[in-house]
Design brief:
Dihydrodipicolinate Reductase, domain 2; binds NADP nicotinamide-adenine-dinucleotide phosphate; 2 domains; 16 strands; alpha/beta; 355 residues; Rossmann fold; globular; six-stranded parallel beta sheet
Length: 355
Protein backbone atom coordinates (compact mmCIF):
# COMPACT_ATOMS: atom_id res chain seq x y z
CA UNK A 1 0.00 0.00 0.00
CA UNK A 2 1.30 3.41 -0.94
CA UNK A 3 1.84 5.66 2.06
CA UNK A 4 -0.03 8.97 2.41
CA UNK A 5 2.23 11.96 1.81
CA UNK A 6 2.46 14.22 4.87
CA UNK A 7 3.98 17.63 5.42
CA UNK A 8 5.29 18.60 8.83
CA UNK A 9 4.99 22.37 8.93
CA UNK A 10 7.07 23.63 11.84
CA UNK A 11 9.38 20.62 11.50
CA UNK A 12 12.38 22.28 13.14
CA UNK A 13 10.86 22.93 16.61
CA UNK A 14 10.78 20.29 19.37
CA UNK A 15 7.21 19.18 18.58
CA UNK A 16 8.00 18.96 14.85
CA UNK A 17 11.27 17.08 15.40
CA UNK A 18 9.59 14.38 17.45
CA UNK A 19 6.79 14.09 14.91
CA UNK A 20 9.17 13.74 11.96
CA UNK A 21 11.09 11.02 13.81
CA UNK A 22 7.87 9.20 14.72
CA UNK A 23 6.45 9.24 11.19
CA UNK A 24 9.57 7.46 9.91
CA UNK A 25 8.33 4.21 11.42
CA UNK A 26 4.68 4.72 10.48
CA UNK A 27 3.12 1.97 8.33
CA UNK A 28 0.89 4.17 6.14
CA UNK A 29 2.01 7.80 6.60
CA UNK A 30 5.29 9.28 5.41
CA UNK A 31 7.03 12.61 5.64
CA UNK A 32 7.15 14.09 2.16
CA UNK A 33 7.83 17.75 3.08
CA UNK A 34 9.52 19.45 6.02
CA UNK A 35 8.54 23.11 6.25
CA UNK A 36 9.68 25.95 8.53
CA UNK A 37 10.51 29.65 8.46
CA UNK A 38 12.45 31.40 5.72
CA UNK A 39 15.54 31.35 7.94
CA UNK A 40 15.55 27.52 7.82
CA UNK A 41 14.54 27.32 4.15
CA UNK A 42 17.01 25.65 1.79
CA UNK A 43 18.99 23.97 4.58
CA UNK A 44 19.17 20.22 5.18
CA UNK A 45 16.90 19.41 8.13
CA UNK A 46 20.01 18.26 10.03
CA UNK A 47 21.56 21.71 9.55
CA UNK A 48 18.38 23.67 10.32
CA UNK A 49 17.82 22.21 13.78
CA UNK A 50 19.37 22.08 17.18
CA UNK A 51 18.68 18.35 17.67
CA UNK A 52 16.59 17.72 20.77
CA UNK A 53 15.85 14.02 20.15
CA UNK A 54 17.53 12.75 23.31
CA UNK A 55 15.76 15.31 25.47
CA UNK A 56 12.43 14.34 23.90
CA UNK A 57 12.91 10.56 24.40
CA UNK A 58 12.77 10.23 20.64
CA UNK A 59 14.59 8.29 17.94
CA UNK A 60 16.93 10.20 15.66
CA UNK A 61 15.52 10.16 12.11
CA UNK A 62 17.38 8.36 9.36
CA UNK A 63 19.82 10.05 6.99
CA UNK A 64 17.03 10.13 4.36
CA UNK A 65 14.97 12.45 6.55
CA UNK A 66 17.86 14.44 8.01
CA UNK A 67 18.99 15.12 4.43
CA UNK A 68 15.58 16.46 3.37
CA UNK A 69 15.72 20.12 2.38
CA UNK A 70 13.54 22.39 4.51
CA UNK A 71 10.99 24.31 2.48
CA UNK A 72 10.13 27.89 3.42
CA UNK A 73 6.49 28.27 4.38
CA UNK A 74 5.83 30.97 1.78
CA UNK A 75 6.64 28.58 -1.08
CA UNK A 76 5.00 25.52 0.40
CA UNK A 77 2.15 24.22 -1.76
CA UNK A 78 -0.40 22.39 0.44
CA UNK A 79 -1.74 20.52 -2.60
CA UNK A 80 1.50 18.52 -2.79
CA UNK A 81 0.52 16.56 0.34
CA UNK A 82 -2.46 14.55 1.51
CA UNK A 83 -2.14 15.51 5.19
CA UNK A 84 -0.54 18.51 6.88
CA UNK A 85 0.68 18.31 10.46
CA UNK A 86 1.16 21.79 11.84
CA UNK A 87 3.55 22.30 14.74
CA UNK A 88 3.93 25.98 14.01
CA UNK A 89 4.34 28.81 16.40
CA UNK A 90 0.78 29.93 17.11
CA UNK A 91 1.00 33.42 15.55
CA UNK A 92 2.31 31.90 12.33
CA UNK A 93 -0.32 29.15 12.42
CA UNK A 94 -2.99 31.85 12.56
CA UNK A 95 -1.68 33.24 9.30
CA UNK A 96 -1.39 30.00 7.29
CA UNK A 97 -3.53 27.12 8.53
CA UNK A 98 -6.89 28.30 7.11
CA UNK A 99 -5.26 28.74 3.70
CA UNK A 100 -3.71 25.25 3.82
CA UNK A 101 -7.13 23.83 4.78
CA UNK A 102 -8.67 25.14 1.56
CA UNK A 103 -7.13 22.09 -0.13
CA UNK A 104 -5.73 19.71 2.48
CA UNK A 105 -6.65 18.37 5.93
CA UNK A 106 -4.61 20.13 8.63
CA UNK A 107 -4.00 18.59 12.06
CA UNK A 108 -2.59 21.24 14.35
CA UNK A 109 -0.89 21.41 17.74
CA UNK A 110 -0.96 25.21 17.71
CA UNK A 111 -3.66 27.06 19.64
CA UNK A 112 -4.40 29.58 16.83
CA UNK A 113 -7.45 27.78 15.42
CA UNK A 114 -8.45 25.81 18.52
CA UNK A 115 -11.35 28.12 19.28
CA UNK A 116 -12.32 28.83 15.68
CA UNK A 117 -15.81 28.05 14.41
CA UNK A 118 -16.41 24.32 13.84
CA UNK A 119 -12.77 23.33 14.48
CA UNK A 120 -12.83 20.31 16.79
CA UNK A 121 -10.41 20.10 19.70
CA UNK A 122 -10.07 16.38 19.16
CA UNK A 123 -8.55 14.22 21.86
CA UNK A 124 -8.74 10.73 20.46
CA UNK A 125 -11.03 8.35 22.42
CA UNK A 126 -12.22 11.25 24.60
CA UNK A 127 -14.45 13.27 22.25
CA UNK A 128 -14.46 11.43 18.91
CA UNK A 129 -18.01 12.67 18.24
CA UNK A 130 -16.55 16.20 17.81
CA UNK A 131 -15.01 15.00 14.52
CA UNK A 132 -18.49 15.48 13.10
CA UNK A 133 -17.66 19.21 13.02
CA UNK A 134 -15.40 18.54 10.05
CA UNK A 135 -18.27 18.09 7.58
CA UNK A 136 -19.99 21.24 8.82
CA UNK A 137 -16.70 23.15 8.70
CA UNK A 138 -16.06 22.15 5.08
CA UNK A 139 -19.57 23.20 4.10
CA UNK A 140 -19.46 26.51 5.98
CA UNK A 141 -16.07 27.63 4.63
CA UNK A 142 -16.17 25.87 1.25
CA UNK A 143 -12.97 23.97 2.05
CA UNK A 144 -11.76 20.79 0.37
CA UNK A 145 -9.61 20.20 3.43
CA UNK A 146 -10.35 21.02 7.07
CA UNK A 147 -8.68 21.90 10.37
CA UNK A 148 -8.61 19.59 13.36
CA UNK A 149 -6.85 20.79 16.49
CA UNK A 150 -5.92 19.01 19.68
CA UNK A 151 -6.08 20.30 23.20
CA UNK A 152 -3.26 22.00 24.95
CA UNK A 153 -0.82 19.35 26.30
CA UNK A 154 -1.78 19.96 29.94
CA UNK A 155 -5.48 19.45 29.27
CA UNK A 156 -4.97 16.01 27.76
CA UNK A 157 -4.54 13.90 30.97
CA UNK A 158 -7.31 15.83 32.72
CA UNK A 159 -9.95 15.15 30.08
CA UNK A 160 -8.82 11.53 29.59
CA UNK A 161 -9.63 10.75 33.22
CA UNK A 162 -12.67 13.05 33.59
CA UNK A 163 -14.30 11.40 30.59
CA UNK A 164 -14.17 8.08 32.45
CA UNK A 165 -15.72 9.45 35.66
CA UNK A 166 -18.23 11.88 34.13
CA UNK A 167 -21.17 9.56 34.78
CA UNK A 168 -20.62 9.97 38.54
CA UNK A 169 -21.42 13.69 38.15
CA UNK A 170 -18.47 16.12 38.34
CA UNK A 171 -18.99 19.20 40.49
CA UNK A 172 -15.58 20.83 40.23
CA UNK A 173 -11.95 20.10 39.44
CA UNK A 174 -8.69 21.60 40.75
CA UNK A 175 -5.42 21.06 38.94
CA UNK A 176 -1.86 22.02 39.76
CA UNK A 177 0.89 21.15 37.31
CA UNK A 178 4.63 20.70 36.94
CA UNK A 179 5.30 21.16 33.23
CA UNK A 180 8.41 20.19 31.35
CA UNK A 181 10.71 22.52 29.46
CA UNK A 182 9.78 21.04 26.07
CA UNK A 183 6.42 22.80 26.42
CA UNK A 184 8.23 26.12 26.05
CA UNK A 185 9.58 25.12 22.62
CA UNK A 186 13.15 25.78 21.58
CA UNK A 187 13.73 28.30 24.34
CA UNK A 188 13.03 25.60 26.91
CA UNK A 189 15.43 23.04 25.49
CA UNK A 190 18.33 25.02 24.03
CA UNK A 191 21.37 25.00 26.33
CA UNK A 192 22.36 28.51 27.33
CA UNK A 193 18.95 29.99 26.50
CA UNK A 194 17.99 32.66 29.05
CA UNK A 195 14.57 31.09 29.73
CA UNK A 196 16.02 27.60 30.33
CA UNK A 197 18.75 29.04 32.55
CA UNK A 198 16.18 30.99 34.56
CA UNK A 199 14.02 27.87 35.16
CA UNK A 200 17.14 25.92 36.15
CA UNK A 201 18.05 28.65 38.62
CA UNK A 202 14.65 28.96 40.29
CA UNK A 203 13.78 25.21 39.96
CA UNK A 204 10.07 25.97 39.59
CA UNK A 205 8.75 28.92 37.65
CA UNK A 206 5.14 29.52 38.68
CA UNK A 207 3.92 31.23 35.53
CA UNK A 208 3.22 30.06 31.98
CA UNK A 209 1.51 32.72 29.96
CA UNK A 210 -2.12 31.92 29.16
CA UNK A 211 -1.80 28.30 30.33
CA UNK A 212 -4.21 28.35 33.30
CA UNK A 213 -6.91 29.87 31.09
CA UNK A 214 -6.31 27.37 28.26
CA UNK A 215 -6.62 24.39 30.60
CA UNK A 216 -9.81 25.73 32.16
CA UNK A 217 -11.63 26.56 28.94
CA UNK A 218 -10.40 23.60 26.84
CA UNK A 219 -11.31 20.97 29.45
CA UNK A 220 -14.91 22.13 29.36
CA UNK A 221 -14.91 22.34 25.56
CA UNK A 222 -13.43 18.88 25.01
CA UNK A 223 -15.89 17.28 27.42
CA UNK A 224 -18.77 19.35 26.08
CA UNK A 225 -21.26 18.23 23.46
CA UNK A 226 -21.68 18.91 19.76
CA UNK A 227 -25.12 19.04 18.20
CA UNK A 228 -24.44 18.11 14.56
CA UNK A 229 -27.94 19.05 13.36
CA UNK A 230 -27.80 22.63 14.62
CA UNK A 231 -23.96 22.76 14.48
CA UNK A 232 -23.85 24.04 18.04
CA UNK A 233 -21.37 23.12 20.73
CA UNK A 234 -21.96 23.38 24.44
CA UNK A 235 -19.38 23.35 27.23
CA UNK A 236 -19.48 20.64 29.90
CA UNK A 237 -21.11 21.77 33.10
CA UNK A 238 -18.47 21.74 35.87
CA UNK A 239 -16.13 24.26 37.45
CA UNK A 240 -12.36 23.99 37.04
CA UNK A 241 -9.36 25.89 38.34
CA UNK A 242 -5.77 25.37 37.22
CA UNK A 243 -2.38 26.53 38.48
CA UNK A 244 0.37 25.74 35.98
CA UNK A 245 4.08 25.76 36.80
CA UNK A 246 7.18 25.20 34.67
CA UNK A 247 9.85 22.94 36.20
CA UNK A 248 13.37 21.99 35.24
CA UNK A 249 12.55 18.68 33.54
CA UNK A 250 12.92 17.96 29.83
CA UNK A 251 9.78 16.31 28.49
CA UNK A 252 7.17 14.92 30.89
CA UNK A 253 4.30 16.79 32.52
CA UNK A 254 3.16 15.81 36.02
CA UNK A 255 -0.23 16.98 37.29
CA UNK A 256 -2.03 16.82 40.63
CA UNK A 257 -5.77 16.59 40.08
CA UNK A 258 -8.66 16.78 42.58
CA UNK A 259 -12.14 15.92 41.31
CA UNK A 260 -15.13 16.71 43.48
CA UNK A 261 -18.10 14.52 42.54
CA UNK A 262 -21.73 15.30 43.13
CA UNK A 263 -22.11 12.05 45.09
CA UNK A 264 -20.13 9.61 47.17
CA UNK A 265 -18.33 6.85 45.19
CA UNK A 266 -16.44 3.61 45.65
CA UNK A 267 -12.71 3.95 44.90
CA UNK A 268 -12.31 0.44 43.46
CA UNK A 269 -15.27 0.94 41.16
CA UNK A 270 -14.09 4.33 39.91
CA UNK A 271 -10.55 3.06 39.38
CA UNK A 272 -11.93 0.20 37.34
CA UNK A 273 -13.93 2.67 35.23
CA UNK A 274 -10.82 4.81 34.64
CA UNK A 275 -8.61 1.91 33.59
CA UNK A 276 -11.08 0.03 31.39
CA UNK A 277 -10.81 1.00 27.70
CA UNK A 278 -14.26 1.79 26.31
CA UNK A 279 -13.56 3.23 22.85
CA UNK A 280 -13.85 -0.13 21.07
CA UNK A 281 -11.48 0.45 18.13
CA UNK A 282 -7.76 0.29 17.51
CA UNK A 283 -5.41 2.69 15.78
CA UNK A 284 -1.73 2.21 15.03
CA UNK A 285 -0.67 5.06 17.33
CA UNK A 286 -3.10 4.29 20.15
CA UNK A 287 -2.01 1.96 22.97
CA UNK A 288 -4.55 -0.67 24.04
CA UNK A 289 -4.70 0.91 27.48
CA UNK A 290 -4.77 4.66 27.11
CA UNK A 291 -4.73 5.15 30.90
CA UNK A 292 -2.44 2.98 33.01
CA UNK A 293 -1.98 2.72 36.76
CA UNK A 294 1.44 3.66 38.03
CA UNK A 295 2.06 1.56 41.12
CA UNK A 296 5.05 2.39 43.25
CA UNK A 297 7.27 5.41 43.06
CA UNK A 298 6.09 8.08 40.62
CA UNK A 299 9.08 9.26 38.59
CA UNK A 300 7.88 11.44 35.69
CA UNK A 301 11.26 11.25 33.97
CA UNK A 302 10.66 7.51 33.39
CA UNK A 303 7.20 7.95 31.87
CA UNK A 304 8.03 7.39 28.22
CA UNK A 305 10.31 4.43 28.93
CA UNK A 306 7.68 2.72 31.11
CA UNK A 307 4.43 3.61 29.40
CA UNK A 308 5.17 4.94 25.92
CA UNK A 309 4.44 8.35 24.44
CA UNK A 310 0.66 8.00 24.10
CA UNK A 311 -0.38 6.70 27.54
CA UNK A 312 -1.62 8.71 30.50
CA UNK A 313 -0.14 7.21 33.65
CA UNK A 314 -2.00 7.83 36.90
CA UNK A 315 -0.75 7.22 40.43
CA UNK A 316 -1.33 8.04 44.10
CA UNK A 317 -5.05 7.71 43.48
CA UNK A 318 -7.22 7.94 46.60
CA UNK A 319 -10.31 9.47 48.14
CA UNK A 320 -9.58 12.83 49.72
CA UNK A 321 -13.03 12.73 51.31
CA UNK A 322 -16.35 11.00 50.67
CA UNK A 323 -16.98 12.85 47.38
CA UNK A 324 -13.45 13.77 46.25
CA UNK A 325 -11.01 11.81 44.11
CA UNK A 326 -7.34 12.79 44.03
CA UNK A 327 -4.52 11.46 41.85
CA UNK A 328 -1.40 12.34 39.89
CA UNK A 329 -1.18 12.02 36.12
CA UNK A 330 1.87 12.10 33.87
CA UNK A 331 2.12 12.37 30.10
CA UNK A 332 4.78 12.67 27.42
CA UNK A 333 4.40 16.32 26.48
CA UNK A 334 5.69 16.01 22.93
CA UNK A 335 3.99 12.61 22.48
CA UNK A 336 0.27 12.65 23.25
CA UNK A 337 0.68 16.31 24.23
CA UNK A 338 1.73 17.39 20.73
CA UNK A 339 2.57 15.67 17.42
CA UNK A 340 1.75 12.05 18.26
CA UNK A 341 -1.68 13.13 19.46
CA UNK A 342 -2.15 14.69 16.02
CA UNK A 343 -1.13 11.48 14.28
CA UNK A 344 -3.71 9.55 16.31
CA UNK A 345 -6.38 12.09 15.26
CA UNK A 346 -5.35 11.72 11.61
CA UNK A 347 -5.53 7.93 11.88
CA UNK A 348 -9.02 8.28 13.36
CA UNK A 349 -10.07 10.60 10.52
CA UNK A 350 -8.71 8.10 7.97
CA UNK A 351 -10.60 5.26 9.66
CA UNK A 352 -13.78 7.35 9.45
CA UNK A 353 -13.27 8.02 5.74
CA UNK A 354 -12.66 11.75 6.21
CA UNK A 355 -9.34 11.51 4.33
N1 LIG B 1 6.39 21.75 22.53
C1 LIG B 1 5.36 21.00 22.91
O1 LIG B 1 5.53 20.01 23.56
C2 LIG B 1 3.97 21.40 22.52
C3 LIG B 1 2.89 20.76 23.10
C4 LIG B 1 1.61 21.10 22.67
C5 LIG B 1 1.45 22.07 21.72
N2 LIG B 1 2.52 22.70 21.22
C6 LIG B 1 2.33 23.73 20.19
O2 LIG B 1 2.94 23.23 18.99
C7 LIG B 1 3.56 24.31 18.30
C8 LIG B 1 5.03 24.01 18.11
O3 LIG B 1 5.68 23.89 19.34
P1 LIG B 1 7.25 23.88 19.48
O4 LIG B 1 7.54 23.75 20.90
O5 LIG B 1 7.86 22.89 18.55
O6 LIG B 1 7.55 25.40 19.01
P2 LIG B 1 8.82 26.20 18.50
O7 LIG B 1 10.05 25.74 19.16
O8 LIG B 1 8.45 27.59 18.69
O9 LIG B 1 8.89 25.81 16.91
C9 LIG B 1 7.94 26.33 16.08
C10 LIG B 1 8.15 26.03 14.60
O10 LIG B 1 7.53 27.14 13.94
C11 LIG B 1 8.43 27.61 12.93
N3 LIG B 1 8.28 29.05 12.72
C12 LIG B 1 8.49 30.06 13.60
N4 LIG B 1 8.29 31.26 12.99
C13 LIG B 1 7.94 30.98 11.71
C14 LIG B 1 7.61 31.77 10.59
N5 LIG B 1 7.58 33.11 10.64
N6 LIG B 1 7.29 31.15 9.43
C15 LIG B 1 7.31 29.81 9.34
N7 LIG B 1 7.63 28.98 10.39
C16 LIG B 1 7.94 29.58 11.54
C17 LIG B 1 9.81 27.31 13.43
O11 LIG B 1 10.71 27.31 12.31
P3 LIG B 1 12.21 27.89 12.42
O12 LIG B 1 12.99 26.89 13.21
O13 LIG B 1 12.65 28.00 11.01
O14 LIG B 1 12.11 29.22 13.11
C18 LIG B 1 9.60 25.94 14.07
O15 LIG B 1 9.68 24.94 13.08
C19 LIG B 1 3.29 25.57 19.12
O16 LIG B 1 2.18 26.23 18.61
C20 LIG B 1 3.02 25.03 20.51
O17 LIG B 1 2.20 25.88 21.28
C21 LIG B 1 3.77 22.38 21.57
Amino acid sequence: MEKLKCAVVGATGPAGQKLVAYLERHPFLEVARVVASESSAGKRLADAITPFFQKLDSNVPSTRVMDMVVQGIKNFDPKECEIIFSTLDSDVAAKYEARFAEDTPVFTAASANRYASLVPIHNVTVNDEHMEMVGAQKAKFGRRGFIVSKSNCTTSPIVSVLKKVAHYGIRNVSVSTEQALSGAGKKGLEEGNAYRSMVRKVGKYPYIEGENEKVMSESKQVLGSFDAINTMRKDADFEISAFCTRVYRENVHDERILVRMKNSFDLGEILNAILTPTHGYSLYTLPTNTIVLWNGKVVPELHTKNFGPMATAIGEIKKADENTLMFRATTDNTGIGAGLGLVASAEYAIAKGLI
